[in-house]
Write a sequence for this structure.
């Protein structure tokens, strides 16, 4: 008997050109947690047959893959979860560079998701999860390393092959990010103001992307052959010391007059690359409102406030969120 350690499994991913058509792994992601597994709901025969037992007989039922994958954030690997979570990407060479690239990630407009093939070696064998769709994604950072956790739905896993190849990337932490706010007549103006603003010091920040994905079952196959995404939601929260009334005023009255839109820009900055660039993950939300504002007035501690926000569609930019990643990867 050989008892294995949790550090021995590994994950490989590849972006599928056609949803559900498996591809080879092009990147192996160091992970913090992984609960990917095959899910099976047997169909039970509960017909009365003259005995007290509820079930007598069962057949194969609905099958799909499901689980969570959590990684530390870096400018190379994060895109393999952020891109399929939003669904659309445009890559180009950074200005003045020859081997540095900018990848602009935006929301896909259709119900067909951008999918992954995930190869998961759990030490006993390698299982392949095709049509892997990001259902929800959580980005979190407080006073330690920044993380991304993705809940994934997929087809029922099959046997796969993988060959571990891990490259070391620079992981990002609380000291590597800033958050800025700005207001304007529309999202475009508000983003310009936010990019030009001074950073607001926060204690923590979280971002949630929800695709409301669903595994669909149809005749002829017990395993799901299709996964669709429904309404798109972006939300989050941040914590800061209660040093002024800015967040309270925005929550209680919103904005009025010409500055009726508020935007935020969150930027993670890594190592210097190329001639004059740096690794970067930049999150731009052109329009948001505060859904709830809690604050902590514990007498033994500092007073903090915790606004939770909801991103809105902004007609001037045509987006509710845009993520721009600068790194040395040519394309995804």
């Amino acid at each position: 008997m050989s008892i294995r350690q949790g550090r021995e499994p590994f994950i490989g991913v590849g972006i599928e050109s056609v949803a559900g058509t498996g591809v080879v792994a092009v990147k192996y992601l160091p992970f913090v947690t992984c609960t990917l597994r095959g899910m099976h709901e047997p169909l039970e025969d509960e017909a009365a047959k003259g005995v007290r037992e509820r079930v007598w007989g069962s057949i194969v039922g609905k099958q799909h893959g499901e689980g969570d994958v959590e990684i530390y954030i870096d400018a190379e690997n994060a895109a393999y979860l952020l891109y399929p979570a939003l669904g659309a990407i445009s890559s180009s060479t950074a200005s003045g560079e020859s081997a540095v690239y900018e990848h602009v990630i935006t929301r896909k407009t259709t119900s067909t998701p951008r999918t992954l093939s995930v190869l998961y070696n759990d030490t006993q064998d390698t299982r392949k999860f095709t049509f892997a769709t990001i259902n929800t994604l959580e980005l979190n950072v407080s006073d330690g390393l920044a993380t991304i956790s993705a809940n994934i739905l997929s087809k029922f896993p099959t046997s796969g092959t993988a060959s571990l190849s891990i490259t070391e990337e620079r992981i990002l932490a609380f000291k590597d990010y800033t958050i800025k706010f700005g207001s304007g007549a529309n999202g475009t103006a508000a983003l310009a103001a936010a990019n030009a603003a001074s950073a607001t010091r926060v204690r923590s920040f979280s971002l949630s992307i929800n695709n409301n994905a669903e595994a669909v079952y149809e005749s002829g196959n017990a395993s799901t052959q299709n996964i669709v995404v429904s309404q798109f939601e972006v939300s989050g929260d941040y914590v800061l010391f209660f040093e002024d009334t800015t967040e309270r005023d925005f929550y209680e009255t919103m904005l009025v007059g010409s500055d009726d839109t508020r935007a935020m820009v969150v930027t993670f900055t890594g190592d210097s690359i190329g001639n004059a660039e740096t690794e970067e993950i930049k999150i731009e939300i052109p329009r948001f409102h505060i859904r709830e504002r809690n604050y902590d007035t514990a007498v033994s501690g500092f007073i903090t406030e915790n606004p939770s926000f909801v991103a809105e569609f902004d007609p001037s930019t045509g987006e509710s969120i845009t993520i721009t990643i600068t790194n040395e990867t040519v394309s995804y």
User: Anything to note?
Assistant: The radius of gyration is 22 Å. The chain has one domain: 10-42+60-327.
